[in-house]
Structure prediction request, 500 residues.
Amino acid sequence: MKKIQKLLVANRGEISLRIMRTAKEMGIKTVAVYSEADRDAPHVKYADEAVCLGPPPSNQSYLLMDKIIQACKELNVDAIHPGYGFLSENASFARKVTNAGIIFVGPSPEAIEVMGSKLAAKHAVSKYDIPMVPGTEDAISDIPAAKVKAQEIGYPILIKASAGGGGKGMRVVENEAEFEEQMQRAISEAQSAFGDGAVFIEKFITSPRHIEIQVLGDQHGNVVHLFERECSVQRRHQKVVEEAPSVVVSDAMRKAMGEAAIKVAKACDYYGAGTVEFIVDEKLNFYFLEMNTRLQVEHPVTEMITGKDLVKEQILIAEGQPLGFTQEDLKIHGHAVEVRVYAEDPRNNFLPDIGNLQTYIRPQGSGIRVDDGFEQGMDIPIYYDPMIAKLITHAENREKAMDRMIRAIEEYQITGIETTLGFCKFVIEHEAFRSGEFDTKFVEKYFTPDKLDIHWTDLELKLLGAAAVELFEKQKNDLRKVKSMQDGTMPRTKWKNRLL
Prediction:
């Protein structure tokens, strides 16, 4: 076992800050990396040391594996934490880090490779008694053969990229007439997005829910699950609102899903923090979907209900220490809800927005957590994911956690850009969400831009009033200056004299 003394976080924004805070509590020095666009970012200021990787585009900065490893060598770094996104699920990077004698705070390169391919993952878990969505076992490109398989499975079916994620290379096919066109599109998109055109076919689950299980495994063969997260409210196949636990999961179902998730982890000798994703049908049958071999964006809701710091556990596992608790030690405490605050315009199909954070005031109070990487006055860069922050609330039960979230959203003041805060409030207040009777089609079923009528809170009205008074006073002063210049009572500056 090797104690980590200095940790480089190969990421940016809120996740970098979140990792560094835990490292600081553990007495570990931190190193930030940044692009020229992030030179003044909070994560850069927070770290003990910082290294500029290059220009703003990620392929010229945050994705430069060799440059990151070289920085580690120059600064005597013991370990690298990849966060999520960027290089976090890149087996090549994990292997390079390990070969350089640096600890990779994550799973083995082999586990990343197996679970990075949806088909390879299905093969790996096939020897275990884990429910699987009916579909092809291998990649398929022969369209006539694929049509026959689709008929066997039964429409509607889903064509999915083997190396895919985030909805890319994914097509729902309702009938045979549209099969060929949709399959060609899926292959083309998969090739463009991932450099791998391999696709496979699955039965399309109608009215699905997306429920995932958090797992932790050490390097001594111990694996536990930390219960489930409900992640069904999505736009463009990407999550926007998450909660833990799920309102539809019973104790028996939780136990069964947790045991299945542990089997998935053991299928690839997994260690570190990982998430096993399941799709759940309207009868609450669950099926293995995929495994994410990294820390998830939504990990705070699990931390809130378990009291476990997942980053701390990742670091301890990377050091070679065994898990300090068993499955029986883990209990669910209350309920947590998370909303992702994106710089996006929900009234315009959630298109990303860029601009300056003219006002940025975080909500505060009991049971409220904000993970962010921005400050008032900063610009939202165009080069990266448009997420500004994650807002999390925790309370003794689901209803109180939702009510606390509404209060927190109303207190969260952001001007200068459009955000998803209003949409998130719409979700939390909606009867379908409150009752728990919703699925991944929540947005298309219930949301239209006209739903976001502007309702100003008392604080927003005060801010608007103050801004109006300030503008009025400025205009009065400008008028006085103009009048003074016209009647000759205002002295001329040297600059004006030169012009005259």
In short: The CA atoms of residues 157 and 209 lie 17 Å apart. The first strand starts at residue 6 and ends at 9. The chain is about 35% helix and 25% strand. The first helix runs from residue 13 to 25.
